[in-house]
Amino acid sequence: MTPQEFIESCDKLIHINPMWKWGEAKKPSYQNTYLPEKKQYIYADIISRQRLHQESENIEIEDHGDFSVI
């Protein structure tokens, strides 16, 4: 996979499921020169069901068995 294919694939994933987000390198020495500064890696912004229920009772949750979508 080329860097451009990686960026395009991740952009599509993030568009389809906003749980995924781009991350920046924590240090300049960690930055990959083939990727844009603000698109160094992707990560899933996941919240546990317990924490979700503690924070708000008004958020709609779709239960998908092993995972839930907010």
Q: Largest sheet, if any?
A: 2 strands, antiparallel
Q: Count the helices. How many?
A: 2
pLDDT < 50 stretches: none
What gross morphology would you assign? elongated
Strand order of the largest sheet: 1-2
The first-to-last residue Cα distance is 31 Å
What value does the Rg take, in angstroms? 15 Å
SS-based class: alpha+beta
DSSP strand content = 15-25%
Helix residue percentage? 25-40%
**Beta-strand segment tally:** 4
Reading the helices and strands in chain order gives HEEHEE
- Average pLDDT confidence is 83
Number of domains: 1
Lay out the secondary structure:
Blueprint: H1 3-16, E1 20-23, E2 41-44, H2 49-55, E3 62-63, E4 68-69
Short characterization:
By secondary structure, the chain is of the alpha+beta class.
Protein described:
- This protein has two helices and four strands, in the order αββαββ.
- Strand 3 and strand 4 (68-69) form a beta hairpin.
- A two-stranded antiparallel sheet has the order 1-2. It has a two-stranded antiparallel ribbon with strand order 3-4.
- It has helices spanning 3-16, 49-55; strands spanning 20-23, 41-44, 62-63, 68-69.
- Helices cover 30% and strands 17% of the residues.
- It is elongated.
- It is of the alpha+beta class.
- It has one domain.
